[in-house]
Design a protein that fits this description.
It is built from seven helices and six strands. It has a six-stranded mixed β-sheet with strand order 3-2-4-1-5-6, sandwiched between helices. Helix 4 crosses helix 5. The radius of gyration is 17 Å and the shape is globular.
């Protein structure tokens, strides 16, 4: 795999190549109480809801039958708690990293959209209009989050040539990785849907990654 830094794409996106057959399984964390209340989470550590714990269990039952070589997760509690049952079922250690964290929403974390609109009407309107260039107060740009998540992917792919890797992260970070690897403009980030414990798959080959599954939650049915 090679990372090229001479292409000033949106967010400074790298280009990737990888050994044919390497598969990346992207998973969003299970449901939290703040998901139910539609509160902004960002970097705030929020535990899984009882429903989320059941979702994580069903996810592990689905993926534990697969030849997954490594399980990585965001170091935030909701992602770790989602990934732990899977890693235990596979009998391999869970590896965590802050690089996979959700985008930081700064002063907006813990609030509902209605509360943000009431407290920061101008800032929220600007962010809604251009969430790529704008950042929440004391928060992070989407492009900054994408750069760190793609840097993580670039670092792990050469370690597992031709093997399958599971990555448990967040709605925003999963969407940012998908945009970067598939060459989508980051401006479509907010129009992608990634549900709790959804599974998306990318298989790498000579021409780059192919998206073979997107936002699948059949294990919850």
């Amino acid at each position: 795999m090679k990372q090229r830094e001479d292409r000033p794409a949106e967010g400074g996106l790298p280009e990737y190549t990888a050994a044919a057959g390497t598969e990346l399984v992207l998973v969003r964390h299970a449901e939290t109480e703040w998901n139910r209340e539609r509160r902004i989470q960002g970097h705030t550590d929020v535990a899984l809801s009882p429903s989320g714990c059941e979702q994580a269990r069903r996810l592990s039952l689905r993926l534990a039958r697969e030849p997954i070589r490594a399980v990585y997760a965001s170091d935030l509690a909701r992602a770790r708690a989602t990934a732990e049952p899977l890693a235990a079922a596979l009998g391999i250690p869970l590896q965590t990293t802050a690089l996979l964290r959700e985008v930081s929403f700064g002063a907006w974390e813990g609030l509902t959209i209605a509360e943000v609109e009431a407290g920061w009407p101008d800032e929220y309107a600007a962010w809604r209009h251009d969430s790529v260039s704008c950042r929440p107060p004391q928060g992070e740009r989407i492009a900054e989050m994408q750069c760190r998540t793609l840097a993580f992917v670039a670092a792990i792919l050469p370690t597992y040539p031709g093997e399958r890797i599971a990555v448990v992260a967040h709605g925003g970070s999963v969407k940012a990785i998908l945009c970067g690897l598939m060459g989508f403009p980051l401006s479509v980030w907010r129009r992608l849907r990634v549900d709790n414990t959804s599974v998306s798959r990318l298989v790498f080959g000579p021409l780059g990654p192919t998206l073979t599954l997107y936002n699948d939650t059949s294990h919850l049915e």
